[in-house]
Queue: 3 jobs
Job 1
Amino acid sequence: KNEVEQSPQNLTAQEGEFITINCSYSVGISALHWLQQHPGGGIVSLFMLSSGKKKHGRLIATINIQEKHSSLHITASHPRDSAVYICAVEGNTDKLIFGTGTRLQVFP
Amino acid sequence: EAGVAQSPRYKIIEKRQSVAFWCNPISGHATLYWYQQILGQGPKLLIQFQNNGVVDDSQLPKDRFSAERLKGVDSTLKIQPAKLEDSAVYLCASSFGLTWGEQFFGPGTRLTVL
């Protein structure tokens, strides 16, 4: 079993829909990252959080430390949001442990 | 602020050939990471540098992979000789802190081994 599990693996949505991507982890962490990877390989860091909730534009990330769970929400989704969203956690060794990603496609 | 630079962006080689990738991190970032990302998987850490010293290279296949970060700035990752299973995107990232902190990723180098 992977230390970081994401669901769903694949997600399709119509433009304007509210999207939720989930991440569960089994190790103790100091921080959790949400990353966005577009075709071509480049990765952009969206959020780094260790508690509570963060918001940036249409993106919201939450984390529940007790339940070892985080969610990434996208409001009013748009085709340009189509990408792979990766959850990664910083464990006690300061190494990032990555999930396998959620592939999102938003259709107009 | 300039981001993490990598070159080349794409490389196609035949198995048993050698290849090298270059990374220039964000200015002032002490920590540099090389990741290997095979299609459909999350990135896997190959090596982590702190300034010009190696912090973690436990997942680096040392019989064929090598990396260096001379002067604690730029870094090169070399594969010699390449195997088919080395086909992947090689991502470089850097962070300011020496322990935990936000990592900034480069665009990656997509390697295809034929």
Job 2
Amino acid sequence: AQTVTQSQPEMSVQEAETVTLSCTYDTSENNYYLFWYKQPPSRQMILVIRQEAYKQQNATENRFSVNFQKAAKSFSLKISDSQLGDTAMYFCAFMKHVASGGSNYKLTFGKGTLLTVNP
Amino acid sequence: SQTIHQWPATLVQPVGSPLSLECTVEGTSNPNLYWYRQAAGRGLQLLFYSVGIGQISSEVPQNLSASRPQDRQFILSSKKLLLSDSGFYLCAWKKTGNTIYFGEGSWLTVV
């Protein structure tokens, strides 16, 4: 079974600074997808960024970028120019294709990192 | 564009009472649908997923059940709630592409 580990339960950063959230995963699959989701106090789960395992280039979305190290099974999230609105719980998630009588994909989540951006 | 709605947003139910949480997806057809639970403010656990009408797969044995009576409707139910069923429930969907999108969530408190 796949596991996702986020070793930092909580982190804090000053506004406008850069912060990196760590994530490692364990899988025997070669083709899979990795995601970072953000959960603000409203509790809605919002997609931040995604990475396909077959792509060597690291994904980037505005101030958010990842460092994907496939051999090391590491997928960290870097937030540049942190803003107060970035305060949220951040979840790393892994998805593989599950072919069990029908096409389906399932997400496995880490336990999350609570990020606080301080003014 | 596609949207997903869950209701009710908040629910307080006594132990032993029934439960029905509904989820509807708009703007797409034949999506994969999911129910996740987030207990104690951490971690998400996949409860059920569905690849089509009437097709339900359960991930964790529990006091809950799911149904998909229509293509874009996914319902989470219980006949008799337990205290341990309290938590935040999230419905999610996936169509083309390899990304799962989540609804607003429903808070369930069993008292």
Job 3
Amino acid sequence: QLQLQESGPGLVKPSETLSLTCIVSGGSISSNNYYWGWIRQPPGKGLEWIGNIYYGGSTYYKPSLKSRVTISVDTSKNQFSLKLTSVTAADTAVYYCAREWTTINMNYFDPWGQGTLVTVSS
Amino acid sequence: SSELTQDPAVSVALGQTVRITCQGDSLRVYYASWYQQKPGQAPVAVIYGKNNRPSGIPDRFSGASSGTTASLTITGAQAEDEADYYCNSRDSSGNLRVFGGGTKLTVL
């Protein structure tokens, strides 16, 4: 059974870089038809897609975050990572990683990691 | 357009049927997927594609799509179905993903 687990600091200072890793277990990150995504949820608000990556390295990012986001993959460690630079309080959120199955006309996220709360504060 | 629009809140009497909708231009081309999120928990997929349920999801959950509107129907709502529901799909370019704002379902 595939499982994803987010890891990284729970507190980041304003203007610094948020770095999270998603460790994938129970299956290979190098699988066709799957993207690997990051989604966040500010406290009390809805879900926001951040971006995704294919094991070959191709990425897509939400346009409003694109200048600050980098998603990378390490197939040797079966994990992928998120970096978000120049963070502000508005980046405080629960960050989820998820596997995304895609076909020509659909996509869905399953499973999800448990999520990790990242607070931006000095 | 890259937006998906959901009603903020919907209520249903226990055992009755409720439909939650999601509107967006990209839904003419791409199917929506639906997620259930209970307080303090990660979202869980309940419907994807034309009308597919991941393993373990009860068959009272079903999905449909027509034009720019996708819908999630719960037939015979149970108390445990009270949760936030989010739709997700691609944007019109097909490369990006977008979530709806979410619908809070109350089971009365």
